[in-house]
Write a structure and sequence with these properties.
This protein is of the alpha+beta class and 400 residues long. It has eleven helices and 16 strands. The strands form four sheets. The chain has a nine-stranded antiparallel β-sheet with strand order 4-3-2-16-15-14-13-12-11, sandwiched between helices. Helix 2 packs antiparallel against helix 11 and helix 3 packs parallel to helix 7. The N terminus is likely disordered.
Length: 400
């Protein structure tokens, strides 16, 4: 499907594209470095084996499906979202999926439940999960400092992998003048992970490691470099071999060249000058922080696997759920590559015309996934708003 950039200045457009990925987390000043590490005293052992969880059999009750449908449609109408795919899965009760609206406004192409969607920062939860699995295997320690893997990072001898994973490192983000200038020369350039990380090298720290919180893509992309160093593989291969293939995630791909985004998929939009403007897609600018594309059913599998703790050892899951109150992104707590909202654990994603929400309720085993093709609405994350609306329907249904 064609993509046309919005008619706004290129520098402003890039800042808009990356706004959700460089949000300041105005949290307290407790150091995360003292909250736990992974230096194993026992011999290394394998991380938990992964298997693809099956979807609950049957459909959810008709009346509940109607309420769920209305919840998503209400959010779409409120924020003028062109299209959405969403699903709710509850063990022992059944499943519900829906495709609403259009994937491409100009062509009036309807959304389908099997489309491939950019999941943006949900990618962070995959990357951090792989780091945690490598720690469980004794391949690295969360107390390792980033200078052991990447040269030239300011305070690299004091920033731990755990601080990168929970966004308390204080290191610079890569979205500065140098990157903006380079991007403007060729907005279609396919960046490598090394090129993205090079924009962080030698940049001033934003705060002392472990004393504050700043949500950036750079934190996660540096972890991507750690994965490559430890495994001796490109990030995409390491992720596929250790997480995607074992989970049967055949619809989930790490894509940096938009030409590789084949098959039916939606166009992303933002509001500009009162109209919906299609966005030019260049996933390479996000790297291991945001370049995964996925399907609704693979989202179900990831919500279940991530939120249930199946990816890592119990003690590692306990560590990763040490969170902090933050105003943005829209979680009650943000922890170690995972967020918590009203008891649901998962991750959101936003940028370049798309939003995603992937969450799991440990109490009921229910999963909710929402993908939408509009982003950067001031003060609103459409997919997260829809997730919250769906979760509220489930809570009301359980108590009525």
């Amino acid at each position: 499907m064609p993509h046309r950039p919005p008619q706004i200045p290129r520098r402003s457009r890039l800042l808009l594209v990356l706004a959700a990925a460089s949000t300041v987390l105005l949290a307290g000043c407790t150091s995360a470095g003292g909250e736990g590490g992974s230096s194993p005293s026992a011999p290394p052992s394998a991380a938990p084996a992964l298997t693809r969880p099956a979807a609950p059999e049957g459909e959810l009750p008709t009346e509940l499906q109607t309420r769920l449908q209305s919840a998503v449609e209400g959010v779409m109408a409120e924020y003028d979202v062109p299209g959405a795919a969403a699903g709710v899965w509850i063990p022992g009760k059944g499943s519900w999926t829906t495709a609403i609206g259009v994937a491409d406004v100009a062509g009036n192409v309807p959304v389908t439940t099997d489309m491939s969607w950019p999941i943006r920062s949900v990618t962070k939860s995959y990357t951090v999960s792989l780091i945690l699995r490598l720690a469980d295997e004794g391949r690295l320690s969360l107390d390792d400092t980033i200078d052991q893997y990447v040269d030239g990072i300011t305070d690299g001898d004091r920033i731990t992998l755990l601080e990168l994973a929970n966004m308390s490192s204080g290191n610079a983000d890569y979205v500065g003048e140098a990157f903006l200038d380079d991007f403007q020369k060729d907005p279609g350039k396919v960046y490598t992970l090394d090129e993205l990380n090079a924009f962080v090298v030698g940049q001033p720290a934003q705060f002392e490691p472990g004393t504050d919180y700043l949500y950036t893509n750079a934190n996660t992309n540096l972890l991507g470099a750690v994965i490559e160093k430890v495994t001796g593989q490109p990030y995409a291969d390491a992720l596929r071999e250790r997480i995607l293939d074992p989970l049967g995630q055949t619809g989930t791909r790490y894509i940096t060249d938009v030409d590789d985004w084949t098959g039916p998929h939606p166009t992303g939009y933002v509001q500009a000058d009162g109209t919906l403007q299609p966005q030019q897609e260049n996933p390479s600018i996000l790297g291991p922080a945001g370049s995964l594309f996925s399907t609704l059913d693979d989202g179900r599998v990831w919500a279940d696997t991530l939120g249930s703790g199946a990816l890592v050892k119990p003690e590692t899951q306990e560590l990763r759920e040490v969170g902090h109150e933050i105003p943005r992104p829209p979680y009650d707590l943000y922890a170690v590559g995972i967020g918590e909202t009203n008891g649901w654990w998962g991750h959101n994603g936003e940028g370049v015309g798309f939003t995603a929400a992937t969450f799991y309720d440990p109490e009921t085993g229910a999963s909710i996934v929402v993908y939408m093709n509009e982003s950067n609405i001031p003060g609103v994350h459409p997919a997260d708003a829809a997730f919250r609306a769906l979760a509220a329907v489930l809570t009301d249904a359980a108590t009525s």
